[in-house]
């Protein structure tokens, strides 16, 4: 089984910056795509950004130019650097990883979520 542990998040004023980090742990697994999703109260969970194992990135239009996703394949970690935060970025942010267990079993894992609150 693969576990994701997130860190970072918190309360910041509009225009500020935060960095989220996530580490995958377990045994006999490899990770393909990793990403960050968010869910605001009363809204559906949405993709914020993801990154493939070779570094191809994808961002939601609402965060392009403000957020940067990066990963360290050797450590199975992914980070989300967020700049120029806006109140509408307030949400619970979830780390996500897709990969393979034991050489053949596909998995999708989620972190426990970390709160990001941006005050106006």
Structural key phrases:
single chain, 120 residues, mainly beta, 7-stranded mixed beta sheet, 4-stranded antiparallel beta sheet, 0% helix, elongated
Approximately how much beta-strand content do the residues carry? over 45%
Unreliable spans: none
Q: Quick one: biggest sheet? A: 7 strands, mixed
Class inferred from helices and paired strands? mainly beta
Beta-strand segment tally: 11
Shape: elongated
Output the radius of gyration.
14 Å
**For the residues shown, what is the average pLDDT?**
96
End-to-end CA span: 40 Å
- H/E series, N to C? EEEEEEEEEEE
* Helical content (DSSP H or I, runs of 4+): under 10%
How many H/I helical runs? 0
Explain what you see:
The chain has 120 residues and is mostly beta strands. Helices cover 0% and strands 61% of the residues. It contains no helices and eleven strands. It has strands spanning 3-8, 10-13, 18-25, 29-39, 46-51, 57-59, 67-72, 77-82, 91-101, 105-110, 114-119. Strands 2, 4, 5, 6, 9, 10 and 11 form a seven-stranded mixed sheet that branches. A four-stranded antiparallel sheet has the order 1-3-8-7, with no helix packed on it. The mean pLDDT is 96.
């Amino acid at each position: 089984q693969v576990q994701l542990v997130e860190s970072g998040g918190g309360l910041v004023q509009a225009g500020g910056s935060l960095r989220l980090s996530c580490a995958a742990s377990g045994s006999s697994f490899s990770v393909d795509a990793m990403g960050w999703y968010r869910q605001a109260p009363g809204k559906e969970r949405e993709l914020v950004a993801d990154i493939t194992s070779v570094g191809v990135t994808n961002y939601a239009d609402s965060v392009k130019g403000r957020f940067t996703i990066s990963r360290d394949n050797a450590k199975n970690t992914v980070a989300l650097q967020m700049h120029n935060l806006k109140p509408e970025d307030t949400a619970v942010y979830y780390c996500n990883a897709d990969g393979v267990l034991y050489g053949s079993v596909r998995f999708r894992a989620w972190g426990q979520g970390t709160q990001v609150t941006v005050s106006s």
